[in-house]
TrEMBL record:
Binding site for AMP: K422, G423, S424, C425, T426, G451
Keyword list, A-Z: ATP-binding, Isomerase, Lyase, Metal-binding, Multifunctional enzyme, NAD, NADP, Nucleotide-binding, Potassium
Catalysed reaction equations from the record: (6R)-NADPHX = (6S)-NADPHX; (6S)-NADPHX + ADP = AMP + phosphate + NADPH + H(+); (6S)-NADHX + ADP = AMP + phosphate + NADH + H(+); (6R)-NADHX = (6S)-NADHX
NCBIfam families recorded: yjeF_cterm (TIGR00196), yjeF_nterm (TIGR00197)
UniProt remark on cofactor binding: Binds 1 potassium ion per subunit.
Chain residues that bind (6S)-NADPHX: 62-66, 123-129, 157, 326, 384, 452
HAMAP family membership: NADHX_dehydratase, NADHX_epimerase
MF annotations from Gene Ontology: ADP-dependent NAD(P)H-hydrate dehydratase activity; ATP binding; metal ion binding; NAD(P)HX epimerase activity
Name listed for the protein in its UniProt record: Bifunctional NAD(P)H-hydrate repair enzyme
The EC number(s) this enzyme carries: 4.2.1.136, 5.1.99.6
Family: Belongs to the NnrE/AIBP family. In the N-terminal section; belongs to the NnrE/AIBP family.
Gene that produces this protein: nnrD
Boundaries of every YjeF C-terminal domain copy: 222-513
Record-level GO BP terms: metabolite repair; nicotinamide nucleotide metabolic process
Length: 518
């Protein structure tokens, strides 16, 4: 699904009017109706609209207009509606204009009484800092919410005061439970601090014709999209159908990496997993990973060319190669990597395994000048912000702010790689400048080894013939989906997940894409 900027959204609206006669009032009717439908769908089956007290905060522009249309639909379905028109300071309770008492007192009572408050103050048209009286109004809502957790907060299009292009927020903005955004998610939702204000994201249909495509090069990865990307599993198949993955991962201080990555490649469906390990390391893997096969390499004190040669000899027929997790950073290991890269560059496209470089694979490379010129075509690299900084001459890379998007896009083109920049909303940029962002996040993933799982999943998809951009996108989405499943099944929240907990839930995350609403 496209992600749009404010100006891209405005262009779409203008085109809808010019080319299809879809005027602003028509779009607003559609917007308000779909917001009402999504709101109701979220209530069910726990609550119904009958008798539900909903207070709408109505702003002066089209965002307020959307709110009014939505309110009318909810009223017709039996909700008890109050409307506060901010600019006019006018309060209407169940159709009656309240004029007897000072509006401030009445409004405070309405806030205290409401089951839900709908923020339809400002949307993409916000053009300056919020005025004091709007901040004060939002502060009242926030205060009530901190007193009463059952009060539901929903924003139409976006939480008021959030910059839809950058994710910056006004000091008066408040975080909501659900944002019902219209037509397309806005770019600023995916970056901090804005990301924290959105709550659950719903996308309302405003009836733009399918032929009207945004010009944006940025997409949100959706479950429906991933579902379509997943490799078919024909009845008439065998392990050869689903590709072989070779992993050059793990070393004495970090043996778990190869296990986690290899296991994850198998869990997304790859046909055969081979760990390239030394004899010294073999007993560890053989006892913990029964399904793996092994390519035995000379010990780490052997000449680098012998170690590289042993791996290269085994590589024929492999569809994917993962280099890096837990590999260590000795000069000898760096030499091995360079020789393997040289070999891969020399192979024709159809004979070359797809390459993923992660972790120490990247750390080894970042020490070299113009390291990217050493990569074979279509490589996927998967840095976290620290590794990205090292790859980019030491610049500081943001963990979640908007600058990371431009950086990833620019570097993917400069380096001609598929660049997966990890973080809370992980993003992926390909060499032609297209980007995809993962909306779903789960801080339980902020624990050692989860990156190895992700790298393994990408390799497993590459072995099954997915393109590098798609393999990275699907893996990122499913990685967070698997983490959500772990949370649900282990009854945990934001802490306590082990990377290995993800493994059995990866196949379930694949199945669940069938039922994705987004
Ligand atoms: N134009 C269209 O065709 C559609 C618009 N839609 C809705 O329209 C919204 C955008 O509408 P608008 O462009 O009217 O913009 P908004 O409704 O977001 O706000 C613009 C109004 O707020 C005032 N304003 C701006 N910044 C302010 C501030 N800091 N403090 C106080 N007042 C401020 C402006 O003077 C203007 O009156 C979207 O977010 C969406 O909700 C949707 O209905 C879909 C279709
Ligand atoms: N707060 C968070 N929300 C969502 N995902 C996160 C969060 N923190 C970390 N992650 C994910 O966890 C993984 C961590 O990878 P990485 O830093 O490489 O760890 P390691 O090398 O220890 O495996 C990445 O996929 C990252 O996107
Ligand atoms: K709003």
């Amino acid at each position: 699904m496209h992600i749009v900027t404010i100006s891209e959204m405005k262009t779409l609206e203008a085109q809808a009017e010019q080319q299809y006669g879809l005027t602003s009032p028509i779009l607003m009717q559609n917007a308000g109706k779909s917001a009402a439908d999504l709101f109701e769908a979220n209530l069910l089956p726990t609550y119904s609209l009958k008798g539900l007290k909903v207070l709408f905060l109505i702003g002066p522009g089209n965002n307020g207009g959307d709110g009014l249309v939505m309110a009318e639909h909810l009223k017709n379905a039996g909700a008890l509606i109050s409307l506060y028109h901010w600019k006019e300071q006018k309060l209407i309770v169940q159709g009656k204009h309240q004029q007897d008492q000072p509006v401030h007192e009445l409004l405070t009572t309405q806030i205290k009484d409401a089951d839900y408050i709908i923020d339809a103050l400002l949307g993409t048209g916000r053009s300056r800092p919020l005025p004091d009286d709007m901040r004060a109004l939002l502060a009242l809502v926030k205060e009530e919410r901190s007193r009463r957790e059952s009060l539901g907060l929903v924003a139409i299009d976006l939480p008021t005061g959030l910059n839809a292009d950058t994710g910056e927020v006004d000091p008066g903005s408040i975080a909501v439970d659900t944002t019902i955004t219209l037509a397309y998610p806005k770019l600023g939702f995916f970056f901090f601090p804005g990301r924290d204000y959105i709550g659950d994201l719903e996308v309302g249909d405003i009836g733009l014709p399918d032929a009207l495509e945004p010009s944006s090069h940025t997409e949100m990865i959706t479950g429906q999209q991933v579902h379509k990307l997943l490799p078919e599993r024909p009845l008439n198949s065998n392990k050869g159908t689903f590709g072989k993955v070779m992993l050059l991962c793990g070393s004495l201080p970090y043996p778990g990496s190869a296990f986690l990555a290899g296991n994850s490649a198998a869990r997304v469906g790859a046909g055969l997993i081979t760990l390239a390990v030394t004899e010294k390391m073999l007993p560890f893997y053989a006892s913990s990973f029964h399904e793996a096969t092994f390519a035995i390499l000379p010990e780490e004190d052997a000449e680098s060319f012998e170690r590289a040669k042993a791996l290269i000899e085994k590589l024929e027929g492999y569809k994917a190669l993962l280099i890096g997790p837990g590999l260590g950073q000795s000069a000898n290991t760096r030499e091995v990597i360079l020789q393997v890269l040289e070999h891969l560059r020399s192979l024709p496209d159809d004979k070359r395994p797809h390459l993923v470089i992660d972790a120490d694979g990247l750390n080894n490379l970042s020490a070299l000048e113009r390291w990217w010129t050493l990569l074979p075509k279509d490589t996927v690299i998967t840095p976290h912000p620290g590794e990205m900084g090292r790859l980019s001459e030491g610049i500081k890379v943001s963990g979640g702010n908007i600058e990371r998007l431009e950086l990833a896009r620019k570097k993917a083109q400069e380096w001609q790689v598929n660049l997966l920049l990890k973080g809370s909303c992980t993003l992926i940029a390909n060499p032609t400048g297209n980007t995809r962002i993962n909306w779903w996040g789960n801080p339980a993933l902020a624990t050692a080894g989860t990156g190895d799982v992700l790298a393994g999943m990408i390799s497993g998809f590459l072995a099954q013939g997915m393109s590098p951009f798609d393999a990275a996108s699907a893996a990122v989405y499913l990685h967070t989906a698997a983490a959500d499943l772990v949370n649900e099944h282990m009854n945990i929240e934001r802490a306590g997940l082990l990377a290995s907990d993800l493994l059995p839930y990866i196949p379930m995350s694949l199945v669940n894409t069938t039922y994705s609403e987004l």
